[in-house]
Automatic annotation (TrEMBL), chains A, B, C, D:
GO terms for molecular function: thiazole synthase activity. Belongs to the ThiG family. 1-deoxy-D-xylulose 5-phosphate binds at residues 161, 188-189, 210-211. It holds the Pfam family ThiG. It catalyses: [ThiS sulfur-carrier protein]-C-terminal-Gly-aminoethanethioate + 2-iminoacetate + 1-deoxy-D-xylulose 5-phosphate = [ThiS sulfur-carrier protein]-C-terminal Gly-Gly + 2-[(2R,5Z)-2-carboxy-4-methylthiazol-5(2H)-ylidene]ethyl phosphate + 2 H2O + H(+). InterPro entries: Aldolase_TIM, Thiazole_synthase_ThiG, ThiG. It comes from Roseateles puraquae. The active site is at residue 100. This is Thiazole synthase.
């Protein structure tokens, strides 16, 4: 039941974002409840100039206790160049070669810009990074990212923060079928635990989300809910989900008479 | 996190059917893995005249060990009269006043017959049964069943054994809003763990299924998957699922510059 | 391309409601633009005590010109008895044995009450009416209505006025397959022309709607749009919609070289 | 109700493909029944080396009679270079600067390759072509195509020949909102008239399809069905589709008593 991400063995398939929590304490508790072993962190944050109010320290402390990994991201970048610079800063600050590469191409959908993304990935791989690209669900773009040296892909389910779930399951299923062996992590758009379970049932390898936990009525319990749903979806995938039938099939076939219990 | 069904306190919201498993041993292992504390059993079974090959004994043994409850059903009945007679037989055989009332109105959909169902429920309540009616998702029919004295409702998600998931979430949501306080258990049609989680996120109280576990590649692991997914969906409901947004909302708002970690 | 409803030959499969239009003139123009040959009219209307502001006269005038038929309805009734009385009044007032039978069972969904509906239908058929029952999409209830002597069924697509489209296409498809030869008219819930076309592609016989036209920005053009969409959906059904494929199939197979045009 | 495509005024918003018809006569009849004023034609066709069995001649004859326009396509190309060469051949053969640019990036989905597509579009615009790019529904890619000089975009609804309808209506709606004024024509994946109407209701400008007509039981009637559905969807869009309501809203408000007809 374990899996491997860049050579590190993980038991959880849940990757959690660290933005937008009410307090550092809630963030700590949510990470613990989630079971997530990878937590993303942005460099550019609201009020960043004024400090981060203790969030990063809280995060480091939690991960030190759980043995989890930090995954810095380049949220807010709009060009390959911006993202490359930020990734290098992140490597210094967080002491990790992992980078979640975000290069946004539209203010409305906050969607990845495939061109800038591929360009940034090519450079960062050359610079020795392990690049986790936040990408669209487009197969050709995904192949370009693999050609650029990415070993993991993070296709979106829906726009960041929308909570709409998987807008195009067909595209994700296509990625799974056409890219066997490549770790695929749905990133963005997940709103409810059932969405996360659905992604796992499609055979994807993990789920990354942030808003659905941070904006929940009770972020800590929601973190636990997602942790369970993701494990459940994976287990269901491994156990083999039944085929859909177009009509009813009696679960209790009847062709005898009531029997007597011995 | 516990809930109450006819005065019995339960920790699991998963109700499992016992038909169609490869062997009694697999059934036992699946019940244990599921965490289900209520297991349904049919009186009319294939080859029933020739005995049940040890399934019921296996079931009794498992439930004795886990403290679970048997819920006999009237699968295969087509009239109120048939169902009433079978219910009385079940009470004798299984020594319980609980009865899952199934009165099928169509061979193709195996859907409940609202008229026969209400008629049977009225009689069985008078006869002292605790009736769990397998019903459609129709609000007026559900109210009739409550008027007849049912204290739990089991609306379908989709035709039995179809694995299609929730065909009409709107109808289930309507039942939840219009019948607050009534235990609602989705029964039939669930195919994947994500379907079960979705039902729980709608605020329903439990999920009953059979084929999705019995027909899985690995029924025991699938039983565990559903157990987790149902718990996850409930937890998500209680934690408050975020509202869907029509567009992207940055989870990592950006209006400062990269900050330095102290 | 014509079809028959209670012995009358019709060319249009669109049945239009007459409530909620901005003015009698708009209603007249909408009926004409729609091509509808059957128009429903309610007896109980807002401000009815104060007269109907000329709507019914406008309607009669339009139908006289187009040779269309009035279909009085019992909108607003909650019991069989109320509906029966209103139906008899309607027969006197409108001089027709046709009645669209509505018996509402819930204030929130305005859904039909299957029990009251069947009871009313039984009586009205005995009284010589041609009953068009507004019913749910439940197969067993539909069979009861046929047993009661109804020759047409009008299952809902979604709650009245919701514009949600077909909430449960599976149920409608089931009705079509299980009730061959029975005229099936989707009534209520249609919001957009594409919803109406979808209903026709399922093999249903007609579409009745009101709010989607009356509440449109431009009711007259919307009436025309629905008229075309319903005709298009029917034509598509008759022409045989292609089967869905799980993957791409080249429409332009390529195995030669570019050819020269002679 | 007319619209303009590259300066030519058109009354129909239906663009039809010409591949896969049973015979030239059926193709001719289908084009006529469709009302389409733009018909695509591939250069690389099955058995092309052996001639095209009269299809292109039939097409030219039909378009000459209806005043329609030929839109040659580069179906089957896998690189920008291939497509550029084929486009130049097409200009010679068909005597038109219009080219539907297809550069396929995957054998399974037959999806566009965004990179090769943009590269080919840039060159062809420089070479004086009016490029109609068959593209994905990705906003950033669409903007690149506009930057390259395309004045029309043809995003897919689903993989070619799949008949699945609009797999991601959200993405198409986003294109519409973010690219106001740009003619958007859904190309590929449409299976039923209702799918085409839905695309038009989203505010897109046209629909291009082939398999749904060519593979229908009766291609000629299906061509007519799509022609009507597309016109209906557009008319519905212009008339203003009602907003969806979460619950029922009486179309026939009732607060008086039955009124008497004067």
């Amino acid at each position: 039941m374990t899996w491997t991400l860049d050579g590190r063995t993980l038991t959880s398939r849940f990757l959690l974002g660290s933005a937008g929590y009410p307090s550092p304490a809630v963030l700590q508790a949510a990470v613990q409840a989630s079971g997530a072993q990878v937590v993303t962190v942005g460099l550019r944050r609201t009020h960043a100039a004024a400090g981060d109010n203790g969030f990063v320290a809280a995060l480091r402390e939690t991960l030190a206790a759980t043995g989890g990994h930090l995954l810095p991201n380049t949220a807010g970048c709009r060009t390959a160049m911006e993202a490359i610079i930020l990734a290098h800063m992140a490597r210094e600050l967080f002491d990790t070669r992992w980078i979640k590469l975000e290069v946004v191409g539209d203010d409305y959908t906050l969607q990845p810009d495939p061109w800038e993304l591929v360009a940034a990935a090519e450079q960062l791989v050359k610079d020795g990074f392990e690049v986790f690209p936040y990408c669209t669900d487009d197969l050709v773009t995904c192949r370009r990212l693999l050609d650029a040296g990415c070993q993991v892909l993070m296709p979106w389910g829906a726009p960041i923060g929308s909570g709409q779930g998987l807008l195009n399951p067909f595209a994700l299923r296509t990625l799974r079928e056409r890219l066997p062996g490549v770790p695929l992590i749905v990133d963005a758009g997940i709103g409810a635990p059932s969405h996360a379970a659905q992604a796992m049932e499609l055979g994807l390898d993990g789920v990354l989300l942030n808003s659905a936990v941070a904006q929940a009525g009770d972020p800590v319990r929601m973190a636990a809910a997602f942790g369970q749903a993701i494990a459940a979806g994976r287990l269901g995938f491994e156990a083999g989900v039944m085929a859909r039938q177009d009509m009813a099939v009696a679960s209790t076939p009847v062709d005898g008479r009531p029997f007597l219990i011995p």
